[in-house]
Amino acid sequence: MAEARSVVITGASRGLGFASAVRLYARGWHVVAAMRSPEAGLERLRAATGAAPGDPRLTAVQLDLVDAASVAGAGKAITPENSCPPCGRQGAGGS
Q: What pTM did the predictor assign?
């Protein structure tokens, strides 16, 4: 069986980022949901997708795009060991 494709989605706790995360998860992708409040956002994503706690295809990282330290921390948290994605989806902070 082929490995699941991976994607990092910023702003995954609501709006377009949330909808993208739900849709891609449903299509079999590994979703790294980047958001300011990962605990609350991950719970909403689990409820919307039916993902169980600990599902390796749905992970979250803390990210606030206006905070350089947060961006650096998220960059360090997304590694090949947790399916560093070959592509990304901008859901928040793009202007």
A: 0.81
